[in-house]
Amino acid sequence: MSTLRRSIMLASRPKGAPSPENFSLEEDVMPEPGEGEVLTRTLWLSLDPYMRGRMSDAASYATPIAVGAAMMGETVGEVVASRDPRFAPGQIVVGAWGWQSHIVTPGDKLVVVPPGAPSCAYLGVLGMPGTTAYVGMKDIGKPKAGETVVISAASGAVGSVAGQLAKRAGARVVGIAGNSDKSLFVQDTLGFDDCIDHRDVMDLSGALKDACPNGIDVYFENVGGDLQQAVFPLMNDFGRIIMCGMVAEYNDTKPRPGPNLMAVVRKRLHIQGFIVSDKPEHFAEWRALAAPWIAEGSLRYREHVVDGLENAPGAFIDLLRGHNFGKLVIRVAEPTKGA
Amino acid sequence: MSTLRRSIMLASRPKGAPSPENFSLEEDVMPEPGEGEVLTRTLWLSLDPYMRGRMSDAASYATPIAVGAAMMGETVGEVVASRDPRFAPGQIVVGAWGWQSHIVTPGDKLVVVPPGAPSCAYLGVLGMPGTTAYVGMKDIGKPKAGETVVISAASGAVGSVAGQLAKRAGARVVGIAGNSDKSLFVQDTLGFDDCIDHRDVMDLSGALKDACPNGIDVYFENVGGDLQQAVFPLMNDFGRIIMCGMVAEYNDTKPRPGPNLMAVVRKRLHIQGFIVSDKPEHFAEWRALAAPWIAEGSLRYREHVVDGLENAPGAFIDLLRGHNFGKLVIRVAEPTKGA
User: Fold this and answer.
1) Does the interface ipTM go beyond 0.90?
2) What's the whole-model pTM score?
């Protein structure tokens, strides 16, 4: 066992887009678990757009990461040492947080990964992003058969699940994705009815109008920016906008103006934000629902794997540019035996 | 009985603020009710901000008034002639629509005003504006004890009821009104905890912050414009914005930008528009609830009465400038015997 722990720290707060200088790779002494704690060796690290918010000290729903502290992110890890009787070395667990090779976590926060799906899926389709898509559709979007549902970042970890849920509800589903490969994947593999490659169209509003001849009943907002401006005028009466994220604006140093809200009155729109962690019970609910779909192959997903903890900063910078294709995960280490 | 009917017609569509030239007073032959119809003589005409939308041909939830047609507005009238067996001359009814001295209406659309409150109240506190306040608070705002609720246009027909409902729910209620008389009325008569005279403060955001030291949980939006911009950053996590109207922007010829919506995600805001007429069952529900409160004096309201149908255009123009003080009604005629 190595005697040093590697960690990616927040070296400084980014102004605008993060750059490599905002991160530093550091080594320190391997930590030891205290009473009730567990030491894990990280196998997989999840990288998600929301982490950009944690790098800022602007007001947010979560405490910012301190400069000089390790970056935060959910991991799948292998138990190395345990002082919680419920865990033993070799077990694969989720719930340890950090861009780190090894993490000490109270046993209460950890869950053993059940068999049936690759452990990595618990960071994506069966984890936070999948649950986010589920909650957004179930509590806010509520798509009905025959309605038109638009999904931004459609090939991404959240959008890919959100769109498939809308298809299951019988809706016509139109994705927005960032290149032609993603767009094909969204249609051919995920089974959306249509997908717009927003980097390929001159007139996004026009393309969206063509793809949604009956207007838009539900919009799953992951992106913001020009796309939000294009979607807003096409919303139908009683439309729902699931406010999940606005990744296109995360690097903005000054907030852009939003849409005029008079349409919200006229069209009786329902616009609602949510954070998946507000209701932790949704995680188990979603896993119970989705695991059989994964097993039978009826819920599709795609992972974008980058090897090596040291490559996490670069992969994260690319994620904010939309350069990933599927759920972005860092393969930090191999399990001792297949996991 | 007079032999001519007087009507205020839409002479032309306003660009920006309506002016007297957009209206014309015309006389025509007194209409006669057909089978199943009722002729009423208008006693009271309701003037409300939403009518500005009907004067435009921009997309709306309702068909615009045709140029050359009578302006629309709800009335209280006295039955003059009836070919519906349920109605007889002398009865006081609501449900006839038009800026007109006499109106023919299918009997199905009319309701006899019950005794107990002045008939005029059925255009205000017990009618559309009161029901609007009720639905907005019940279905969207859902104020809880101890929460902070901000009401724009607080002395108006909708705002005055909305704030009193929030007080009944145990919330701290802060009004925004357009002059010092209104502001005093909102506090002293309606019983709000505080009221800001928005024309009297240099720094609306600062004044609002001072009045809402714990932030804002519920905002009843009647106004839009600068006030909306000031409210938005003060919204608390899980806040609700009841999108009822944006009267400050109704005369705009180009929509203003709205607030950036990333706060909707971060704070899990719920922003929802509604139109009271979408669920007609709410009208009776509200009347049943509120009539005893009116009778016992625990629900307060104020009417702004202007005499004469010919003065409706001027009164309406002033309404959009906020020059009314309370629910604006036109006294078109006196009842044959007290009503």
Assistant:
1) yes
2) 0.93
